[in-house]
Amino acid sequence: MSKTYSSAERAYREIKERILTGTLPGGELISEGEIATDLGTSRTPVREAFLRLETEGWMRLYPKRGALVVPISSHEAEHVAHARYVVETATVRALTGDDRTALATTLRDSLTRQRELLSELTESDPQVLARFATEDTDFHRTYVVAAGNPLLTGFYDSLRERQRRMNSAALHRAPAHVARIVEQHAQLADLIAAGDTQAFDTALAEHLAGVHQLELKGLR
């Protein structure tokens, strides 16, 4: 691997991570020069990273002006939330009693980590918020994987980056809501353990709508 390619790959990964964590929020116009300076590299790998991110839909480039971080549109947020709802409710319905028993421990461990992060959260610490956003994403993925359907898991994983970005945006918008999110996760875990799929459907719809400020028409 050439040094130029390696530098471009590193720039791409770092810039994309900043977009996913909200460090580079949607709607922000950035330049190759400022990012190159920040990363301690030349403009060439940053330019290559920008082009790749534009191809993937994360950025929009404007010659001589810079790169716009594409905001999360209301339609995109709704589509991701709807897709998540369909997969998560379907996989929870597919769980057996043995699945739920094994899953309960894993979900409790995740809730413990979430509460620890909550206790660390002071003055909207961006690093803690980023870690919580990842833990949030992993919490929901845990019961999707537990259903044992690789096709649904694969589709769900294809939403992961958008899910992380939406979670990060929601947390930066209202960091005080983290405690409520943890409470809602605990409720979802309890409903899964109890096998109450109807109540889970309703709780999940309310959770997704509340966290992401969406109406989510048509969901329970």
Description of the structure:
This protein has 10 helices and 3 strands, in the order H-E-H-H-E-E-H-H-H-H-H-H-H. The protein has 220 residues and is mainly α. The protein folds into 2 domains: 63 residues, Arc Repressor Mutant, subunit A, CATH 1.10.10; 139 residues, Four Helix Bundle (Hemerythrin (Met), subunit A) (Up-down Bundle), CATH 1.20.120.530. The protein has a 3-stranded antiparallel sheet. Helix 1 crosses helix 3 and helix 5 runs antiparallel to helix 6. It is elongated. The protein starts with a helix and ends in an 8-residue tail after the last helix. The mean pLDDT is 91. InterPro entries: GntR_C, TF_FadR/GntR_C, Tscrpt_reg_HTH_GntR, WH-like_DNA-bd_sf, WH_DNA-bd_sf. Keywords: DNA-binding, Transcription, Transcription regulation.
Short structural summary:
This protein has 220 residues and is mostly helical.
Distance N terminus to C terminus?
A: 51 Å
What is the chain-wise order of helices and strands? HEHHEEHHHHHHH
Could you name the CATH topology of the largest domain? Four Helix Bundle (Hemerythrin (Met), subunit A)
Count of DSSP H/I helices:
10
Proportion of residues in extended strands: under 5%
Q: What would the principal axes of the Cα set say about the shape?
A: elongated
Mean model confidence by pLDDT: 91
Counting DSSP E segments of at least 2 residues, the number of strands comes to: 3
- Would you tell me the structural class of the helices and strands? mainly alpha
Placed side by side, the strands forming the largest sheet appear as: 1-3-2
Per CATH, which architecture of the largest domain? Answer: Up-down Bundle
- Which CATH class of the largest domain is shown? Mainly Alpha
The CATH fourth-level homologous superfamily of the largest domain = GntR ligand-binding domain-like
Unreliable runs: none
* Assembly category: single chain
Radius of gyration: 19 Å
GO molecular function, one term: DNA binding
Domain HTH gntR-type: 5-72
Pfam families: FCD (PF07729), GntR (PF00392)
Organism: Nocardia vermiculata
